[in-house]
Amino acid sequence: MSNGPAIMWFRRDLRLGDHPALHEAVKLGGEAGVVGVFVLDDALLAPSGKPRAQFLAGCLDALNDSMDGHLVILKGDPTIVIPDLAQGLNAPAVVVSADFGPYGQRRDSGVEAILGLDRIAFERVGSSYAVDPGTVLSEKGAPLKVFTAFRRRWELLGPHIVLPVPEVSWVDFPSMATTSQIVEDAGRSRPARFEGLAHDATPGSFQPGEAAALDRLNEFAGAKALHYRAMRDMMAEPGTSGLSPYLRFGCIHPRTALNAVAGDDEGSVTFRSEIAWREFYADVLFHEPRSARETLQPSLRSLRWDSGPIAVEHFQAWARGETGIPLVDAGMRQLLAEGWMHNRTRMICASFLVKHLHIDWRWGARWFMDRLIDGDLASNSHGWQWTAGTGTDAAPFHRIFSPIAQAERFDVAGSYIRRYVTELASVEPPQLYQPGGGSGLLRPEAYPEAIVELKAEREEALARFAEARGKS
Ligand SMILES: Cc1cc2nc3c(=O)[nH]c(=O)nc-3n(C[C@H](O)[C@H](O)[C@H](O)COP(=O)(O)OP(=O)(O)OC[C@H]3O[C@@H](n4cnc5c(N)ncnc54)[C@H](O)[C@@H]3O)c2cc1C
Fold it and tell me: What is the structure's pLDDT at 245?
């Protein structure tokens, strides 16, 4: 008879509030209580960059504090350590928030099969999304490839009920590992082209954990949400919620955010639509797991990318924020300094790599995954494919962001550029947007000359686009 505690296996749900799986674990554990566990899994840590690993470690420490020190940390292959733990405890069930990513689904099926041999239940309750990937379908029952159609149907599935923190009787069990190992183990499988680039954990400006996530949400849900639509593209201003790292690790559930920002004003409506983008991309990944690594638009699969030593040199200049294009450099340096980048600058930096340097979007996506604390396979790969024009419902390839026009519009006073590109601290717009205007005049010596000529490379990108389209 399974009369032991239930196991709550935490993954991307590092919180106690609004947690349907935790409620289920409490129910199944009954008087025997609940063991809360997190597994340090090499398959996830090796490709993760150190900034995100450090944020994860902080979130686990915060979760452990809120569990009065009862979080159990194990290390190893989850298909071995979770069944071992469940057998050892005589647990009736292992409860999880469902994972819809390609690796997570494979891992969970493996764990479920092994637990099944001992008649231990594997319960998936809820997920990291307001609406589980795979739920929103067209009238004919097909996946939706266009965001607006997805969002219209997705909206009809709300409002969503937010659950309170349950009373949990946590059971003591010794940990086999510590959170300090996380940063050590992270980032061991870096590509050779990252040689010499930053490989550290970033202090960052995001306090980890559930309480910090709720503070951010409360701060945003008032006046900031009202002005969100007008301010969200102004990269120098704190006009967005800053919730992405917390949503990434489930320190907060999107349901909680949707409920807190529920108004009919245009700021709140736009914010909910951005949450819908996150859910849309998770849905696309669920239906098309290859979209994480493969160009989705068949006509662009033959697009010519640059490779070889000059491409690596250009890639490294971009990653270091030393391209000589101020807005691109400011975005890339924000990423290095904070482990986070403003959404509009992500688009501009991604567009520059793909369309001005002609480098494969996957190189850039991999670098973002190394440095972003909110790095998420679905949002990142599809954000890149959207900008590159290669994804489902993407911006057309021929829409090429001009980093100069974008700076004129969205960094009007130039304060974003000056904050990160300190060599340009005393340069004012309009020279700030393109120091020297290509001629080198008025460019402080410490700041690099532009590595490419924007107009010529734009023409080159369009020519390669026409070539790829001609071949398909
Ligand atoms: C090239 C590129 C790569 C990206 N990589 C990631 C990534 O790895 N992880 C990630 O969470 N987001 C990614 N994004 C999306 C977006 O840039 C971030 O979610 C956003 O900047 C986070 O800031 P915020 O929380 O203040 O957002 P807000 O503007 O406050 O939006 C609220 C939430 O909505 C979601 N959201 C907003 N915009 C998008 C979007 N375009 N796509 C998907 N979800 C969105 C996020 O969960 C965000 O926290 C990427 C975008 C691009 C263009």
Answer: 98
